[in-house]
Amino acid sequence: MSAIEFKIVKKIGEEAPFARAGILTTKHGDIETPAFVVVGTKATVKGITPEMLKDTGAQVMLSNTYHLYLQPGNEVVRDAGGLQGFSNWHGPTMTDSGGFQAFSLGAAFGKNITKFTKGESEILLQSRRDESSPLKPAQIDANGVMFRSVIDGSVHYFTPEKSIQIQHDLGADIIFAFDECTSPQEPYAYQAEAMDRTHRWAKQSLMYHVFDEQGKIKEASERQALFGIVQGGRSEKLRKESAEVLKNMTITLPDGSTKGFDGFGIGGSFAKEDMTTAVEWVNGILPEDKPRHLLGIGEAEDLFEAVEKGCDLFDCVMPTRNGRTGTLLTKYGKMNISNAKYVNDFTKIEDGCECYTCKNYSRAYISHLFRAKEMLGGTLATIHNIYFTVQLVKNIRESILNDTFFKFKKEFLSLYHKEE
Ligand SMILES: [Zn+2]
């Protein structure tokens, strides 16, 4: 049996790419798709235990190859029995390739930049052209990327083979091919060059994932699924080319059969207005029967758009990062719980929410925790925000199954305002 199996239960829409509901079977359990993948960067979803995570309805956790390689080291995680054994999260897991962090964090090392949200692609762009930057363009070469550790500034080199080896040690059910994530502001010529490099690295990742030095099939490739990552920036031509190349990328096994990617990631930092069109171009080409993961997306309206255009999986630090800073997600939009108006507000964060936090605590209490800088504040807010996002995607799934997707989308987004 292959590392994963993917079954589409229902498809809706006028023409491809269709919105779909499916079941993705991994060695550590099933994921009902579309699904929101919770980010546990360093093998922990910050501030909550795996039991709390499970209680939110979360099905799958994504950890970060770059961070776990630097700390505690992939061998430590391997010797603990992989991510599941190490973290005590026993459901399905994923790891990213580490490419994005190697580029963005490595490029910014020593520049006193600590926040990486929407501006990170711009930071990368500047750093690449900044002669004083520790990561000069020459340090991205045909074989990989040299970067500095965010922890101690030590120098490291990632290649496709290295990324896959680390991800084999981490042992997640779904892993990603090594890629270069470009800024949408990069010129076309650079996007094309980076995309070709990503394709070469994808092939190397696939080879290393499957074959050992003697040309025998690695056991890890039967346990872990490998997703290729589509890049190409905001160019229709490049995005379509990337989807086409990765869709057809296969290697020949000793028995004469061929093996390609088990699924696909859609990468890149999108300018807001580009996301839907880029996803539509790509999913119109990618094979229907393989899962598609849109990397780094988690805002409500983006989730609806991405599902409508045929994506199955999403991950984003937004719900957890917002939770830690006291920004709570509700069906009316985001609320800042530290706001003075909540000091005496003894209602729940969101009426009707079934999460642990809303079942047991008031806005006033959570507001107090944040003002008093108590640890529990971030924990309770994180639980609610994960529950909110996970449930939203579950409800989107239900609406596909019930043929009410477009009605649900319209109703939800008419109430939901992005800013408070
Ligand atoms: Zn709640």
Please give a quick description of this structure:
By secondary structure, the chain is α/β, with parallel strands linked by helices. It has helices at 50-55, 65-70, 74-79, 82-87, 99-108, 120-128, 160-170, 188-210, 220-223, 236-248, 275-283, 300-308, 318-324, 356-360, 363-371, 375-401, 405-415, and strands spanning 5-12, 19-26, 29-33, 35-39, 61-63, 93-95, 145-148, 155-158, 174-176, 225-230, 251-252, 258-259, 263-266, 292-294, 313-316, 327-330, 333-336.
Shape: globular
Low-confidence stretches: 107-138
Structural class: alpha/beta
Class of the largest domain, according to the CATH hierarchy? Alpha Beta
- Please compute the radius of gyration using only Cα atoms: 21 Å
What is the CA-CA span between the terminal residues?
Answer: 48 Å
Task: Give the helix tally.
Answer: 17
Residues in β-strands, percent: 15-25%
The tally of strands reads: 17
Q: Helix share of residues?
A: 40-55%
CATH architecture of the largest domain: Alpha-Beta Barrel
CATH-defined topology of the largest domain: TIM Barrel
Q: How would you write the strand order of the largest sheet?
A: 4-5-6-9-10-13-14-15
